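User: tokens in, sequence out, please.
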């Protein structure tokens, strides 16, 4: 499984570029996003750039769900994809417990949307994130910080995917025009 890692002249593993989508619709949403970024840095995930925070209506949740605040972070990491996922899940669990005495909806959602140019399909992880090209709340912040980032299956850049999504937008329907290109 997976491509060989890039190894530098001194034998060290070279960091790759990945993108993490962040979302929060509970509590102090901006503070939750900032706390997640802080925790990722503390966990050794090198966050090099973060988009602005975008406000979006909740998609697919129960009626009346509060609006989300969304962002995308560019990270440099030597962690393998599943190890990166484990760090994200740990940060989610840590922040989800903040200020709660009983089970409560999570205050933060973290997804790996791109991991270098890797295509990963395992029981725990699908990368690129299967919905990313259909979600303006992912593509808008991604196109802000990395318009040239390429979806390795669709062979389209973040900017192209966003333009395509906007030009074909039909409320509530997935975008049928983007399909994997050879
Ligand atoms: P959710 O809470 O709906 O975001 O789902 C979280 C679960 O989705 C995680 O426990 C992962 O095992 C799984 N998953 C699959 N692909 C991804 C991805 N690209 N990024 C984050 N989680 C993923």
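Assistant: Sequence out:
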């Amino acid at each position: 499984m997976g491509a060989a890692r890039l190894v530098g002249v001194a034998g060290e593993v070279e960091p790759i570029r990945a993108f993490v989508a962040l979302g929060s619709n509970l509590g102090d949403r901006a503070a939750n996003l900032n706390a997640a970024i802080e925790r990722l840095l503390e966990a050794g995930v090198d966050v090099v750039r973060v988009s602005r925070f975008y406000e979006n209506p909740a998609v697919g949740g129960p009626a009346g769900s509060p609006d989300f605040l969304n962002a995308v972070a560019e990270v440099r990491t030597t962690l393998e994809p599943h190890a990166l996922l484990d760090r994200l899940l740990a940060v989610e669990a840590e922040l989800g417990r903040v200020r709660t005495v009983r089970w409560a909806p999570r205050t933060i959602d973290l997804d790996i949307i791109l991991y270098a140019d890797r295509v990963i399909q395992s029981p725990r992880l699908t990368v690129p994130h299967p919905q990313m090209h259909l979600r303006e709340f992912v593509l808008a912040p991604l196109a802000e910080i990395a318009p040239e980032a390429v979806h390795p299956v669709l062979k389209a850049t973040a900017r192209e995917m966003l333009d395509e999504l906007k030009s074909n937008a039909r409320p509530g329907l997935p975008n049928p025009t983007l399909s994997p290109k050879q």
